[in-house]
């Protein structure tokens, strides 16, 4: 792995733990075992977001990357890349007879039928705000939760949660990725009084990172311990008990679409996490029967050299790693393109960012 001079010592330690949940490249694996990820999103107005998200998943290393989108968006997204499997399964007001009277569970049926084939979902990129679409996706969220399928919620996927927080309340297999505006909307919907990032930054006195972490922790607690990745100058990841700060340096351009690289990367990391807990390969670690419940127990797992990590710890690590990879992609792309940097420039950097920050795990066969 390349030397990384801009990453703190504590982050390098965390990356060594992330490497534990990355499946090694072995001849025994068959197609699909190292990740089947689906992005649910894409409508007539927004076709780029689901593409960037799905391509980040593929570029990071999942085996199969799907896009489940609205009918009008499918030909466009298919035209972007033949590497993606695109399914025009999302209904909208334009594709149902009576948008005011629909059977949402029935309309969600074709998508729900695919869930058994998937390891992780990314819900929201380019989803739009069509009323029929949002009702159908809410049904998909309910079904995915009932099957304990991990998912990431972003953009208009977060709007669904704002309208009905019970969809994710207490669900420990999902990650919400709000920006500053979305974070504020969620807090307001839940009746949680937290300082905004602007208020925190203008407060002057005190540690702004600590205040942002407190706000993220409060919102997570209001949602029953759901993991929240709050995007900002430094990303904050919290499950209401334990918080981690992502301090990897990013670029200075805030172009649209960078969050899609984040969600796609998270999708693949969640799929790899599932493979880790399914013991798809021998990690050389001793089984750990106890689920980490406290900040101290999570830290003990991170400090351990040879004990298998529990799902609580690996979910925090996956969220932190997705944030770090995206920030590194942004840094690398900005170093090359400067203020002309676009979302597609981050896509091109995903694999290089992975190698630089995490690197291939022991046992990987990267050369024939």
TrEMBL record:
Q: Which PROSITE patterns match?
A: YJEF_C_2, YJEF_C_3
Residue span of region Disordered: 285-308
Residues that hold (6S)-NADPHX according to the record: 126, 179-185, 260
Q: Which residues form the YjeF C-terminal domain?
A: 14-357
Cellular-component GO terms for this entry = cytoplasm
Q: What is its EC number?
A: 4.2.1.93
Question: Which cofactors go with this protein?
Answer: Mg(2+)
Signal peptide interval: none
For this protein, what reaction is catalysed? (6S)-NADPHX + ATP = ADP + phosphate + NADPH + H(+); (6S)-NADHX + ATP = ADP + phosphate + NADH + H(+)
Which Gene Ontology molecular-function terms are recorded? ATP binding; ATP-dependent NAD(P)H-hydrate dehydratase activity
Keyword NADP assigned to the entry: answer is yes
**Location in the cell:** Cytoplasm
On the tree of life, the source organism's domain of life is: Eukaryota
Which positions in this protein are listed as binding ATP? 231-235, 250-259
Q: Which NCBIfam families match?
A: yjeF_cterm
Q: Which family does it belong to?
A: Belongs to the NnrD/CARKD family.
Q: What does this protein do?
A: Catalyzes the dehydration of the S-form of NAD(P)HX at the expense of ATP, which is converted to ADP. Together with NAD(P)HX epimerase, which catalyzes the epimerization of the S- and R-forms, the enzyme allows the repair of both epimers of NAD(P)HX, a damaged form of NAD(P)H that is a result of enzymatic or heat-dependent hydration.
Protein name stated in the entry: ATP-dependent (S)-NAD(P)H-hydrate dehydratase
């Amino acid at each position: 792995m390349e030397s990384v001079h801009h990453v703190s010592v504590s982050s390098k330690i965390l990356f060594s733990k992330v490497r534990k949940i990355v499946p090694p490249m072995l001849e025994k694996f068959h197609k699909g075992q190292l990740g089947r990820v689906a992005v649910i999103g894409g409508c007539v107005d927004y076709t780029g977001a689901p593409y960037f998200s799905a391509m980040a998943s593929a570029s990071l290393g999942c085996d199969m990357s799907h896009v489940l989108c609205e009918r009008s968006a499918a030909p466009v997204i298919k035209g972007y890349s033949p590497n993606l499997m695109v399914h025009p399964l999302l209904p909208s007001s334009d594709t149902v007879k009576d948008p005011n009277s629909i059977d949402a569970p029935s309309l969600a049926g074709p998508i729900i039928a695919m869930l058994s084939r998937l390891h992780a979902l990314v819900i929201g990129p380019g989803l739009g705000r069509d009323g029929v679409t949002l009702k159908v996706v809410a049904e998909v969220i309910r079904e995915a939760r009932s099957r304990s399928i991990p998912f990431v919620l972003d953009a208009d996927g977060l709007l669904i949660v704002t309208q009905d927080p019970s969809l994710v309340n207490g669900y420990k297999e999902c990650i919400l990725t709000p920006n500053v505006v979305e974070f504020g909307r969620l807090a307001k919907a839940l009746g949680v009084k937290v300082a905004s990032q602007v208020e925190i930054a203008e407060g002057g006195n005190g540690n702004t990172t600590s205040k942002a972490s407190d706000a993220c922790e409060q919102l997570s607690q209001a949602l029953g311990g759901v993991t929240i990745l709050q995007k900002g100058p430094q990303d904050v990841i919290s499950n209401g008990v334990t918080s981690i700060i992502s301090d990897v340096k990013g670029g200075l351009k805030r172009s649209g679409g960078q969050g899609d690289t984040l969600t796609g990367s998270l999708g693949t990391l969640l799929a790899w996490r599932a493979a880790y807990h399914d013991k798809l390969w021998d990690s050389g670690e001793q089984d750990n029967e106890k689920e980490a419940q406290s900040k101290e127990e999570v830290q003990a797992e991170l400090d351990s050299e040879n004990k298998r990590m529990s799902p609580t710890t690996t979910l925090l690590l996956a969220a932190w790693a997705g944030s770090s990879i995206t920030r590194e992609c942004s840094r690398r792309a900005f170093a090359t393109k400067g203020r002309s940097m676009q979302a597609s420039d981050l896509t091109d950097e995903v694999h290089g960012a992975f190698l630089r920050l995490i690197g291939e795990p022991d046992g990987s066969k990267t050369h024939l």
